[in-house]
Input
Amino acid sequence: MILVALLLPLAGAALCWAFGPRLRGAAGWLATAAVGLSFIAILVAGSGREALFTWMPGFDFGLSLDRLSLLWSVVITGVGCLIHLYSIGYMHGDRGFARFFAYMNFFIFAMLLLVLSDNWVGLLIGWGLVGLASYFLIGYWFDRPSAVAAARKAFVMNVVGDVGMMFAIFLLVANLHTIRMSDAFASAASLSPALLYAICFGLFVGAAAKSAQVPLHTWLPDAMEGPTPVSALIHAATMVTAGVYLVARCAPLWDQSASAQMLVGTIGALTAISAAILGAAQWDIKRILAYSTMSQIGYMIMGVGVGAYAGGIAHFFTHAFFKAQLFLASGIIIHALGNEQDVRLMGGLRKRMPLAFWGILTGVLAISGIPGFSGFFSKDQIVAGALAHGHPYMYAVGIVTAGITAYYMFRLFFITFLGEYRGNVDPASVGITRETTNAAPHEPGDDAHHAPAWIMGLPVALLIIPTVLAGWLLFGSDASPSPWSRFFAPQFAGPATAAVPIPDWLTTAITFAVVLIGIGVAALRYATSAARADAVARLRSESLNMPKVLTHQYYMDALINFVFVRGARLLGAVFGRIVDPFVIDGAVRESATSAQSLGTAVRALQSGLLRAYAFVIAIGAGCFLVYYLVTGLPHR
Amino acid sequence: MPAHLLPMPLANYVSLSAVMFFIGVAGVIVRRNPLIMLMSIELMFNAANLLFVAYARAWLNNAGHIFAFLVITVAAAEAAIALAIVVVAFRSSDRVDVDDVRTLHG
Output
C-alpha cells in the first residue's frame, strides 16, 4: 500500500506528460486525483515497512512508514492535493497546463520517495529528485529569463547541499556497512566523535541548502519566480522543510553530538532572525512570504537542532497549513489584480476579496502566534524547548523573532487590505523605482475568467480549518501530555530536558507580549486612520528611506557573486587562456609535429628498391652472426 | 655405434653450405633480374637444407631430415607465388629489372 501511495503520483506525472495535449483540462483533475488517492493510500497503510528489492547482497531497498514519515506524507499528499485543486483554477488556460501538473505530480512522487525511503540511497535519490522538480517548476515559464536564472540558481545551490549530504552518506556507509537507516542509528554509538560531527555536518549542509538556511538561502526568494501554487507547495509547505525532516530523522546521530546540535541550532536561530528582518523590508507580497518561510524554517531547524524534535516538527505541521494558506490567498489577489505582486499597489482589498481577506487574516494570526491559532502552540514549543535544552541565546532570538514576525506579517496585512485601493496610482508616487520593483510579470496565456471561482476558493476555505485548529493537538501539560507529544514520544528518545528557571506560562506570556509589541508597531505605522489617509506618501518615504543593506539582502548575493562566480570565472580564465592553449593544446600539437618529423626522417629508408631491402636484411643477419660469434651460443 | 655416418669431415659440409649461402646473398643483392634473384634465394634454401641433412647424419637425429623436406615444400610454394608476382609485375614492362618496380617507395 505504501508502494501504491508512492507510485500513484508518478503514474499521474507520466500520464500528464505523455498525453498532455490530448488530456487538456482533464490533466489537472487526473493529477489531483492521483495525489488524493495517494493521500488515502497513506492513511490506509498507516504504518509499516515494505521491502522492495535487493540492490546488492546486504543492501536492501525498502519503504517504511513510521510516525515521522507518516506526518510528512500526510502533509505532502493532503496539502498537495488541495494545492493541485487550486492550481486547476490558477493555471487555467496556461499553455503548459498538462506539463505543469506533470511536474507537480513528479514533485509529490519525489518528496514521498524522500520521506518514505528506509535507506540512505533512496533518501538521496528523493533528495535529488525534489531539487530537480523544484528546478522544473521555478523555471516553469521558461520564456522569462528571470525565471530561468532563478531556477538555475536554486538548482546549483541545492546541488551544493546534495554533495555535502552525499559525502555524509559515504562516511556512514563506509563506517557502518549498511544503507538502512535504522541499522545505522542502532550502531551510531560506535562512531568516533569527530567522525560523527563530520557526518552531521555533511548532512546539515544538505539540509541547509534544501531548507534555505544561512548561508545557502539566497535561492529561495528568487524561487518566487515560479507560479504561486508552486511557491505554496514546494517553497513553503513541503520541499523546503526536507531539511527539518532530515535532522529529525537523524535524531539519533544528532543526540550524540552536542557540537553538531549547537551548529544546527545556531544556524536556525540566525536564519530565523535575519530572514525576519529582511521580510520587514520587502514590498513584493510573495517575497515577504518567502522570507517569512525562511524565518519559520529557521525556527523549525532551531527546534530540531536543540533537540526539541516534537516541537520542531509540530511547527512544520502547522506552518504547512498556514503558509500554504497565505500563499494561496495571496495567489487569489495576484490573479485578480492581473499579476500585480507589489503590496504598495494594493490596499483596500478587504471588501473586494473577502475570501482572500479571511484567508490571509487567519494565516497572519497563526504565523504571528496569536493564542488559539495553530502557530502559537508550535512556536511556543520551540521557544520553550530551546530553553529547556539549555540554549538561552536561541530562546531570546526565538522571542525577538516572534515580535518581528508579527510586525511584518501585520504590515503585509494592513498595507494590502486597509485604506484605499492604490492600483491606479502612479507607481513612482509610492516609491517604486526600477531597482526595487519586480517588473510585474505577465503570465503567458492566463485567463482567469473561465475556471469556476470555487476551484481556487475551496482549498483556501478548507485550509482555514487546520490553520486555526491544528495547534490544539499540541495542547497539554506535563501532567497530561498533549496528543502530539504522546504520539511522537516513541519516535524521539532524546536526552531528558533540564529544569528551567522560567516556567512555561511565563515564556508564553513574554512571547505574547513581544508579539503584541510587533503588532502594535505595525498598527501604528500602517493602520491608524492618519496612516491610512496618508498611505501613498508614507509608503513612498518608507521605500526611499529603506536601508540599503536590507534592500540588497545583506549583500549576500553580491558576496556569493564575488567569491564564487568571480572566482570560478577567474579559474576559467586561467584554464582558458593559459592551461588550455599552452599545456593541453601544446601537448597535442607537439605530439603531432614530432610524429611528422619522425616520419620525414624514416621515410628515406622506404626507397622501394628491392635490392636495398635485401641488403638491409643481409646486414641484419650479419650482425646477428657476428654477435653470436663473439658471445657464443646460449647454453641450453 | 659409429660416431657418425658421414663419408667426410663435417667441416666440409659446413664450409660448402656457407659458400653456397653467401653466393645466394650476393646474387640477391647484386643481380637485377628477378628470375636470377629467385634462383639465388633457392640457393640459400639449399645451403640450409645441406646443413640440416649433414647435422642429421652427424648427430643421428632424423629431425633434420624432416626439416629439410619442410623447407623444400615451402620453397616450392614460395617459388610458385614469387613467379606469379614476377609475371604480373612485368607483364606491362618490356624490361625485366627489379629496380624499375618502385611504387612502394616512401
User: Anything to note?
Assistant: Chain B has one domain: 10-92.
